[in-house]
Amino acid sequence: MLALALLAFFIWACQKELSGDVSKQASKQQLNLFLTDDPALFDSVLIDIQAVRVRVDTCSSSGQDDNGASGNLDDDDSCEIWLNLTIRPGLYNLLQLRNGIDTLLASGSVPAGKVEKVRILIGNNSYLVKDSIRYPLHLPVGNKAEIELKMKGDDWDHFGGNSSRVWLDFDVARSIVKVRNGQFYLIPVIRPFVVKKTGVLEGKVQPMAALPVISVYNSSDTAYAIPDKNGSFKIRGLKEGSYTMFVNASNGYADTTLNNLSVLAGRETKLNTINLHK
What is the pLDDT of residue 31? Predict the structure, then answer.
């Protein structure tokens, strides 16, 4: 009977341990952060990214739902932990991440809870190339080499059970400032978006001899695009609504404006080819 009792205890202990392991697995969430670009008129822009960290409130099971309603929050600081995600540290050429192209910046398995903040650590080797000349990108005096993004529950695309993803749109045009002495400073402007909750405008501009630069705007949002060598462009992360598109042309070609372009969440709006004329 003693042997049977010991055997029963052993089976119970194993079941408890297995149950604990399953509970631990269920209490994890997988995060994926993608990097994309809102371009500017440079030959290339290379940002030195060394680390990505997230702050998770482990006492909040949901944070905010898709409608922005508050979930269960806990003001206890002991619930909030900072965790490093896995990245490939080094230089990222932002101007290669345009017209619908992105790259996986960071990923990792972290405790379940509300992801409140994302911090991106910038190294000292960032630079840009303009007219074939290389310029270092300086950080303003007194600024930390960290970009901090405050997140909401609806910033994330939740899929596949315990997985979440978000796209980070690095707005190069607003992030780089040229000062009087010809130096360039990096003041990062990054906008998170989710594909299924935002829309896309895409199309083609001809001829590329016009060197077109595209801006899309309404009362609350502005985005930019520089077509590829074939004239194709794609602008992602637009909030649902009506937009105006301005095509700024050069080399004697006339500018063109398109009005009342409708953008729907989770949809791609394809435009007819825009032909520019002298």
Answer: 95
pLDDT digits (tens, 9 = 90+) for 66-121: 444 444 444 456 788 999 999 999 999 999 998 989 999 999 999 998 999 999 99
Token couple for 264: 């729907």
Tokens, residue 84: 């490093």
Read off the pLDDT of each residue in 16-33 and give the average, rounded to a whole number.
60
Dihedral, 130, 132, 133, 137 alpha carbons, nearest 10: 40
Report DSSP letters for the chain, one per residue.
Answer: -HHHHHHHHHHHHHHHHHHHHHHHHHTEEEEEEEEEEE--SSSEEEEEEEEEEEEEETT-SSSB-TT--B------GGGEEEEEPEE--EEEEGGGS-TT--EEEEEEEEESSEEEEEEEEE-S--EEEETTEEEEEEPPTT--SEEEEE--GGGSEEETTTEEEEEEEEEHHHHEEE-TTS-EEE---EEEE-GGGSEEEEEEEE-GGG--EEEEE-SS-EEEE---TTSEEEEEEEPSEEEEEEEE--TTPPPEEEEEEEE-TT-EEEPPPEE---
Q: HEC states along 139-154?
A: CCCCCCCEEEEECCHH
Model pLDDT, residue 144: 64
Rounded to two decimals, the pTM is 0.79
Higher pLDDT, 19 or 262: 262
